[in-house]
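Inverse folding, one chain.
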Protein backbone atom coordinates (compact mmCIF):
# COMPACT_ATOMS: atom_id res chain seq x y z
CA UNK A 1 0.00 0.00 0.00
CA UNK A 2 1.31 3.42 -0.92
CA UNK A 3 2.40 5.55 2.01
CA UNK A 4 0.24 8.64 2.21
CA UNK A 5 2.38 11.62 3.18
CA UNK A 6 2.65 15.23 2.11
CA UNK A 7 6.24 16.10 1.19
CA UNK A 8 7.36 19.72 1.10
CA UNK A 9 9.80 20.38 -1.71
CA UNK A 10 13.09 22.25 -1.47
CA UNK A 11 13.34 25.13 -3.91
CA UNK A 12 15.69 28.07 -4.11
CA UNK A 13 13.80 31.31 -3.52
CA UNK A 14 14.14 34.01 -6.11
CA UNK A 15 14.28 37.70 -5.38
CA UNK A 16 10.64 38.15 -6.35
CA UNK A 17 9.26 35.58 -3.89
CA UNK A 18 6.50 37.24 -1.89
CA UNK A 19 6.91 37.18 1.87
CA UNK A 20 4.15 36.17 4.27
CA UNK A 21 3.17 37.76 7.56
CA UNK A 22 1.99 35.23 10.15
CA UNK A 23 0.45 36.11 13.50
CA UNK A 24 0.26 32.88 15.48
CA UNK A 25 -1.28 32.50 18.91
CA UNK A 26 -3.22 30.06 21.07
CA UNK A 27 -2.79 27.54 23.83
CA UNK A 28 -1.41 24.01 23.91
CA UNK A 29 -1.86 22.46 27.36
CA UNK A 30 -0.04 19.32 28.47
CA UNK A 31 2.75 20.23 26.05
CA UNK A 32 5.78 17.91 26.19
CA UNK A 33 8.03 20.91 25.48
CA UNK A 34 7.92 24.68 25.74
CA UNK A 35 9.08 25.17 22.15
CA UNK A 36 6.85 25.38 19.07
CA UNK A 37 8.74 25.40 15.77
CA UNK A 38 7.62 26.81 12.44
CA UNK A 39 9.25 24.73 9.73
CA UNK A 40 8.99 23.02 6.38
CA UNK A 41 9.66 19.35 5.73
CA UNK A 42 11.87 18.67 2.72
CA UNK A 43 11.44 15.64 0.52
CA UNK A 44 14.74 14.31 1.90
CA UNK A 45 13.09 14.08 5.33
CA UNK A 46 14.95 17.08 6.70
CA UNK A 47 13.39 20.13 8.34
CA UNK A 48 14.10 23.78 7.67
CA UNK A 49 13.25 25.82 10.74
CA UNK A 50 12.12 29.42 10.39
CA UNK A 51 11.21 30.41 13.95
CA UNK A 52 10.89 29.10 17.51
CA UNK A 53 7.94 30.13 19.67
CA UNK A 54 8.21 29.75 23.45
CA UNK A 55 5.09 28.64 25.35
CA UNK A 56 4.50 29.93 28.91
CA UNK A 57 3.86 27.58 31.83
CA UNK A 58 0.19 27.24 30.87
CA UNK A 59 0.95 26.55 27.20
CA UNK A 60 -0.10 29.98 25.94
CA UNK A 61 1.80 31.67 23.12
CA UNK A 62 1.53 34.64 20.79
CA UNK A 63 3.95 35.96 18.18
CA UNK A 64 4.26 37.57 14.76
CA UNK A 65 6.61 36.09 12.15
CA UNK A 66 7.73 37.18 8.71
CA UNK A 67 8.20 34.12 6.51
CA UNK A 68 10.13 34.19 3.22
CA UNK A 69 7.26 33.00 1.03
CA UNK A 70 3.58 32.14 0.88
CA UNK A 71 3.51 28.37 1.13
CA UNK A 72 2.74 25.31 3.23
CA UNK A 73 4.39 25.16 6.66
CA UNK A 74 4.44 22.93 9.72
CA UNK A 75 3.85 23.90 13.34
CA UNK A 76 5.98 21.30 15.11
CA UNK A 77 5.89 20.60 18.84
CA UNK A 78 7.55 17.48 20.18
CA UNK A 79 6.73 14.67 17.75
CA UNK A 80 3.44 16.26 16.67
CA UNK A 81 3.04 18.30 13.49
CA UNK A 82 0.25 20.54 12.27
CA UNK A 83 -0.10 21.63 8.64
CA UNK A 84 -0.53 25.35 7.95
CA UNK A 85 -1.51 27.20 4.78
CA UNK A 86 0.28 30.54 5.04
CA UNK A 87 -0.78 33.27 2.63
CA UNK A 88 0.25 36.94 2.45
CA UNK A 89 -1.32 37.95 5.76
CA UNK A 90 -2.47 35.43 8.38
CA UNK A 91 -3.88 35.46 11.89
CA UNK A 92 -4.02 31.83 12.96
CA UNK A 93 -4.89 30.46 16.39
CA UNK A 94 -4.10 26.93 17.59
CA UNK A 95 -5.72 25.25 20.60
CA UNK A 96 -5.02 21.68 21.56
CA UNK A 97 -3.80 18.94 23.86
CA UNK A 98 -0.02 18.62 23.59
CA UNK A 99 -0.11 14.92 24.45
CA UNK A 100 -2.40 14.13 21.52
CA UNK A 101 -2.13 17.19 19.33
CA UNK A 102 -2.83 15.31 16.08
CA UNK A 103 -6.11 14.04 17.56
CA UNK A 104 -7.28 16.93 19.72
CA UNK A 105 -6.62 20.25 18.08
CA UNK A 106 -8.63 23.17 16.73
CA UNK A 107 -7.26 25.72 14.27
CA UNK A 108 -8.98 29.08 13.86
CA UNK A 109 -8.37 31.77 11.28
CA UNK A 110 -7.51 29.38 8.46
CA UNK A 111 -10.24 27.06 7.22
CA UNK A 112 -7.78 25.55 4.76
CA UNK A 113 -5.32 24.64 7.52
CA UNK A 114 -8.12 23.26 9.67
CA UNK A 115 -9.43 21.11 6.79
CA UNK A 116 -5.94 19.80 6.05
CA UNK A 117 -5.39 18.66 9.62
CA UNK A 118 -8.82 17.07 9.94
CA UNK A 119 -8.18 14.99 6.83
CA UNK A 120 -4.67 14.20 8.04
CA UNK A 121 -6.29 12.44 11.01
CA UNK A 122 -8.36 10.36 8.58
CA UNK A 123 -5.24 9.46 6.61
CA UNK A 124 -3.29 8.47 9.71
CA UNK A 125 -6.12 6.24 10.95
CA UNK A 126 -6.25 4.47 7.59
CA UNK A 127 -2.48 4.07 7.58
CA UNK A 128 -2.54 2.60 11.09
CA UNK A 129 -5.21 0.06 10.11
CA UNK A 130 -3.32 -0.89 6.97
CA UNK A 131 -0.03 -1.30 8.86
CA UNK A 132 -1.71 -3.43 11.53
CA UNK A 133 -3.28 -5.63 8.86
CA UNK A 134 0.10 -6.22 7.22
CA UNK A 135 1.61 -7.22 10.57
CA UNK A 136 -1.20 -9.69 11.32
CA UNK A 137 -0.89 -11.29 7.88
CA UNK A 138 2.89 -11.59 8.18
CA UNK A 139 2.46 -13.46 11.46
CA UNK A 140 -0.48 -15.68 10.48
CA UNK A 141 -1.00 -16.46 6.77
CA UNK A 142 -4.22 -18.34 7.55
CA UNK A 143 -5.85 -15.01 8.40
CA UNK A 144 -4.85 -13.42 5.10
CA UNK A 145 -8.23 -13.81 3.35
CA UNK A 146 -10.18 -12.66 6.41
CA UNK A 147 -7.95 -9.62 6.85
CA UNK A 148 -8.00 -8.77 3.15
CA UNK A 149 -11.80 -8.94 3.05
CA UNK A 150 -11.97 -6.64 6.05
CA UNK A 151 -9.40 -4.22 4.61
CA UNK A 152 -11.24 -4.08 1.27
CA UNK A 153 -14.24 -2.65 3.11
CA UNK A 154 -12.02 -0.25 5.06
CA UNK A 155 -10.35 0.90 1.86
CA UNK A 156 -13.78 1.55 0.31
CA UNK A 157 -14.72 3.61 3.40
CA UNK A 158 -11.48 5.57 3.16
CA UNK A 159 -12.03 6.29 -0.54
CA UNK A 160 -15.49 7.65 0.27
CA UNK A 161 -13.94 9.94 2.89
CA UNK A 162 -11.32 11.05 0.35
CA UNK A 163 -14.04 11.88 -2.19
CA UNK A 164 -15.98 13.76 0.47
CA UNK A 165 -12.88 15.76 1.43
CA UNK A 166 -12.16 16.69 -2.19
CA UNK A 167 -15.80 17.56 -2.83
CA UNK A 168 -16.05 19.71 0.29
CA UNK A 169 -12.87 21.66 -0.43
CA UNK A 170 -13.24 22.62 -4.09
CA UNK A 171 -10.55 25.08 -5.25
CA UNK A 172 -8.94 25.07 -1.81
CA UNK A 173 -5.26 24.90 -0.95
CA UNK A 174 -6.21 22.21 1.57
CA UNK A 175 -6.53 19.73 -1.31
CA UNK A 176 -2.77 19.24 -1.35
CA UNK A 177 -3.42 16.85 1.53
CA UNK A 178 -5.35 14.63 -0.88
CA UNK A 179 -2.53 14.19 -3.39
CA UNK A 180 -0.77 11.49 -1.39
CA UNK A 181 -3.96 9.44 -1.43
CA UNK A 182 -4.38 9.53 -5.23
CA UNK A 183 -2.18 7.38 -7.44
CA UNK A 184 -0.83 9.69 -10.14
CA UNK A 185 -0.19 6.84 -12.60
CA UNK A 186 -3.40 4.88 -12.08
CA UNK A 187 -5.73 7.83 -11.39
CA UNK A 188 -4.15 10.48 -13.62
CA UNK A 189 -7.40 12.33 -14.39
CA UNK A 190 -8.35 12.61 -10.71
CA UNK A 191 -4.82 13.67 -9.78
CA UNK A 192 -4.80 16.33 -12.49
CA UNK A 193 -8.20 17.66 -11.41
CA UNK A 194 -6.89 18.13 -7.86
CA UNK A 195 -3.60 19.66 -9.04
CA UNK A 196 -5.49 22.18 -11.17
CA UNK A 197 -7.70 23.22 -8.26
CA UNK A 198 -4.72 23.65 -5.92
CA UNK A 199 -2.82 25.67 -8.51
CA UNK A 200 -5.86 27.89 -9.07
CA UNK A 201 -6.28 28.44 -5.34
CA UNK A 202 -2.65 28.89 -4.29
CA UNK A 203 -0.57 29.86 -7.37
CA UNK A 204 2.00 31.76 -5.28
CA UNK A 205 2.95 28.64 -3.33
CA UNK A 206 6.42 27.38 -4.26
CA UNK A 207 5.38 23.88 -3.22
CA UNK A 208 2.36 23.97 -5.53
CA UNK A 209 4.53 25.16 -8.41
CA UNK A 210 6.85 22.21 -7.85
CA UNK A 211 3.97 19.71 -7.75
CA UNK A 212 2.63 21.17 -11.01
CA UNK A 213 6.09 20.99 -12.55
CA UNK A 214 6.51 17.35 -11.52
CA UNK A 215 3.07 16.41 -12.85
CA UNK A 216 3.67 18.14 -16.18
CA UNK A 217 6.99 16.28 -16.48
CA UNK A 218 5.18 13.00 -15.77
CA UNK A 219 2.57 13.73 -18.46
CA UNK A 220 5.25 14.62 -20.98
CA UNK A 221 7.13 11.40 -20.24
CA UNK A 222 3.91 9.41 -20.51
CA UNK A 223 3.12 11.07 -23.84
CA UNK A 224 6.63 10.29 -25.11
CA UNK A 225 6.09 6.62 -24.33
CA UNK A 226 2.91 6.43 -26.41
CA UNK A 227 3.13 5.05 -29.96
CA UNK A 228 1.48 8.21 -31.31
CA UNK A 229 3.68 10.69 -29.46
CA UNK A 230 4.64 13.90 -31.25
CA UNK A 231 7.95 13.40 -33.05
CA UNK A 232 7.64 9.63 -33.37
CA UNK A 233 7.41 7.89 -36.73
CA UNK A 234 3.76 6.97 -37.30
CA UNK A 235 3.08 3.21 -37.24
CA UNK A 236 3.21 1.88 -40.76
CA UNK A 237 0.30 -0.01 -42.31
CA UNK A 238 -0.85 -1.47 -45.62
CA UNK A 239 -4.55 -1.67 -46.36
CA UNK A 240 -7.01 -2.41 -49.15
CA UNK A 241 -8.02 0.41 -51.48
CA UNK A 242 -11.48 1.23 -52.83
CA UNK A 243 -11.36 -1.65 -55.32
CA UNK A 244 -10.77 -4.01 -52.36
CA UNK A 245 -7.98 -5.70 -54.38
CA UNK A 246 -4.99 -3.36 -54.54
CA UNK A 247 -3.25 -2.22 -51.38
CA UNK A 248 -1.88 1.17 -50.34
CA UNK A 249 0.99 1.46 -47.85
CA UNK A 250 1.50 4.51 -45.63
CA UNK A 251 5.31 4.42 -45.88
CA UNK A 252 5.04 4.66 -49.69
CA UNK A 253 3.98 8.27 -49.16
CA UNK A 254 7.28 9.26 -47.52
CA UNK A 255 8.65 12.46 -48.96
CA UNK A 256 5.22 14.12 -48.74
CA UNK A 257 3.43 15.85 -45.89
CA UNK A 258 0.59 13.43 -45.10
CA UNK A 259 -2.69 13.90 -43.30
CA UNK A 260 -4.02 10.55 -42.03
CA UNK A 261 -7.77 11.15 -41.87
CA UNK A 262 -9.97 8.64 -40.03
CA UNK A 263 -13.58 9.07 -41.08
CA UNK A 264 -16.73 7.21 -42.22
CA UNK A 265 -19.65 7.84 -44.56
CA UNK A 266 -22.07 7.54 -41.64
CA UNK A 267 -20.20 10.13 -39.52
CA UNK A 268 -21.95 13.52 -39.71
CA UNK A 269 -19.03 15.57 -38.26
CA UNK A 270 -16.67 13.81 -40.70
CA UNK A 271 -18.81 14.73 -43.70
CA UNK A 272 -19.05 18.33 -42.51
CA UNK A 273 -15.26 18.47 -42.14
CA UNK A 274 -14.57 16.98 -45.58
CA UNK A 275 -14.91 20.30 -47.48
CA UNK A 276 -12.15 21.75 -45.29
CA UNK A 277 -9.87 18.80 -46.04
CA UNK A 278 -10.63 19.12 -49.76
CA UNK A 279 -9.84 22.84 -49.63
CA UNK A 280 -6.44 22.32 -47.99
CA UNK A 281 -5.60 19.43 -50.31
CA UNK A 282 -6.31 21.51 -53.41
CA UNK A 283 -4.26 24.41 -52.04
CA UNK A 284 -1.15 22.44 -51.06
CA UNK A 285 -1.07 19.29 -53.22
CA UNK A 286 1.44 20.88 -55.61
CA UNK A 287 3.72 21.58 -52.64
CA UNK A 288 3.83 17.93 -51.62
CA UNK A 289 0.78 17.55 -49.41
CA UNK A 290 -1.54 14.56 -49.61
CA UNK A 291 -4.21 12.76 -47.62
CA UNK A 292 -4.46 9.15 -46.52
CA UNK A 293 -8.16 8.55 -45.81
CA UNK A 294 -8.88 5.58 -43.55
CA UNK A 295 -12.58 4.72 -43.52
CA UNK A 296 -14.37 3.01 -40.63
CA UNK A 297 -17.18 1.98 -42.96
CA UNK A 298 -18.67 -1.48 -43.24
CA UNK A 299 -20.71 -0.85 -46.38
CA UNK A 300 -18.53 -0.66 -49.53
CA UNK A 301 -21.22 1.03 -51.62
CA UNK A 302 -21.91 3.80 -49.09
CA UNK A 303 -18.18 4.38 -48.67
CA UNK A 304 -17.69 4.82 -52.42
CA UNK A 305 -20.75 7.07 -52.72
CA UNK A 306 -19.47 9.35 -49.91
CA UNK A 307 -16.05 9.66 -51.57
CA UNK A 308 -17.74 10.73 -54.80
CA UNK A 309 -20.33 13.00 -53.20
CA UNK A 310 -17.75 14.84 -51.06
CA UNK A 311 -15.27 15.04 -53.98
CA UNK A 312 -12.40 13.49 -52.05
CA UNK A 313 -10.07 13.63 -55.04
CA UNK A 314 -6.84 12.33 -53.51
CA UNK A 315 -5.92 8.76 -54.51
CA UNK A 316 -5.27 7.31 -51.06
CA UNK A 317 -8.46 5.74 -49.71
CA UNK A 318 -8.24 2.54 -47.63
CA UNK A 319 -10.51 0.36 -45.51
CA UNK A 320 -10.90 -3.27 -44.56
CA UNK A 321 -14.61 -2.52 -43.97
CA UNK A 322 -14.24 -3.59 -40.37
CA UNK A 323 -15.88 -0.53 -38.83
CA UNK A 324 -14.56 0.22 -35.34
CA UNK A 325 -12.73 -3.11 -35.40
CA UNK A 326 -10.71 -2.25 -38.49
CA UNK A 327 -7.03 -3.07 -38.14
CA UNK A 328 -5.74 0.45 -38.81
CA UNK A 329 -8.16 2.15 -36.40
CA UNK A 330 -7.11 -0.26 -33.66
CA UNK A 331 -3.43 0.29 -34.48
CA UNK A 332 -3.95 4.03 -34.07
CA UNK A 333 -6.20 3.67 -31.00
CA UNK A 334 -9.00 5.64 -32.64
CA UNK A 335 -11.79 6.31 -30.15
CA UNK A 336 -13.86 8.76 -32.19
CA UNK A 337 -14.06 10.21 -35.68
CA UNK A 338 -13.13 12.48 -37.31
CA UNK A 339 -9.57 11.98 -36.11
CA UNK A 340 -6.49 13.21 -37.95
CA UNK A 341 -2.72 12.88 -37.65
CA UNK A 342 -0.36 15.14 -39.61
CA UNK A 343 3.00 13.68 -40.65
CA UNK A 344 6.10 15.40 -41.96
CA UNK A 345 8.06 14.15 -44.98
CA UNK A 346 9.93 11.66 -42.79
CA UNK A 347 6.68 10.12 -41.56
CA UNK A 348 7.03 11.67 -38.11
CA UNK A 349 3.96 12.90 -36.22
CA UNK A 350 3.68 16.70 -36.19
CA UNK A 351 0.22 17.29 -34.73
CA UNK A 352 -2.95 15.35 -33.96
CA UNK A 353 -6.64 16.11 -34.45
CA UNK A 354 -6.17 19.18 -36.63
CA UNK A 355 -9.33 20.45 -38.35
CA UNK A 356 -10.44 23.38 -40.48
CA UNK A 357 -8.47 26.60 -39.85
CA UNK A 358 -6.07 24.81 -37.47
CA UNK A 359 -5.03 22.39 -40.23
CA UNK A 360 -4.60 25.16 -42.77
CA UNK A 361 -2.57 27.24 -40.30
CA UNK A 362 -0.21 24.32 -39.68
CA UNK A 363 0.25 23.70 -43.40
CA UNK A 364 0.85 27.41 -43.95
CA UNK A 365 3.72 27.20 -41.45
CA UNK A 366 5.15 24.18 -43.25
CA UNK A 367 4.84 25.43 -46.84
CA UNK A 368 5.20 29.16 -46.20
CA UNK A 369 2.01 30.37 -47.87
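Residues assigned per position:
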Amino acid sequence: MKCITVFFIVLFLNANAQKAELTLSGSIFNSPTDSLYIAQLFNQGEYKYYDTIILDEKGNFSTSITLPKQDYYIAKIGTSELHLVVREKNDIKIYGDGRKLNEFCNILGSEESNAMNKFDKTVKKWQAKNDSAMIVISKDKEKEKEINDYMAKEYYNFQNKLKSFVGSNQNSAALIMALGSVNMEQETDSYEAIINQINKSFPKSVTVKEYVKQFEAYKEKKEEDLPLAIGKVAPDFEELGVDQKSKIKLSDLRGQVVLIDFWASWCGPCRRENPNVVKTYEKYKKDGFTVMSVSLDKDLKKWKEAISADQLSWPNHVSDLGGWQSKVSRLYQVGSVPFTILLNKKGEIIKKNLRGPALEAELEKIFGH
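The first strand starts at residue 20 and ends at 29. Residues 238-367 form a domain with the Glutaredoxin fold (CATH 3.40.30.10).
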